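Input chain follows. Return structure tokens only.
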Amino acid sequence: MDLLDRWAALAGPQTRVIGERLAARYAEEHRRYHTRDHLNAVLDLVDELAPYAADPDLVRLAAWFHDAVYDPARADNEKRSARLARRMLTDTDLAPDAIAEVARLVELTESHAPGEDDRNGQVLCDADLAVLGSDPVRYAAYAAAVREEYSFVPEELFKAGRAEVLRNLLDLPALFHTPAARERFEDRARHNIGTELTLLNG
């Protein structure tokens, strides 16, 4: 299904202009990993993990907004994406509490640490991090694309910052929270992250 058709099926054809604006953001020239392909991949995983969510459609909306604002030089992309979600969804018939939940989920992708009873958050975070548990070739392409997005950062500074991010991930008690994602991705993700750390430190 076309990306905009996915939006219309989710939020209604009357909101298609919102989907168009979001899709345009994911096509920005500076993006290498956080692209329409990433959005589609996250949406696909949300669909797969939907039985674990309390409200799958709100998770899908959050997926659309989670990287809507993406500037590698800033550290507040999730907060800015959440603000964008609040502003754009106010123009729809979505209830205020539903809009608040979408914004909360978007902000959660900064830490990827949902609570034990946060079923919506678990599904979104698992879908967003699934690339970590991909096959080695895809993981290498992901890591290379992230480096391209940070091409303005000198090599040694990038290596140090990237290594810190990866170590923080490994320090999490679990990278994945839903049973299906944990079984499918956890071990391979930890192996991939460990391999990348070795290469960064080599």
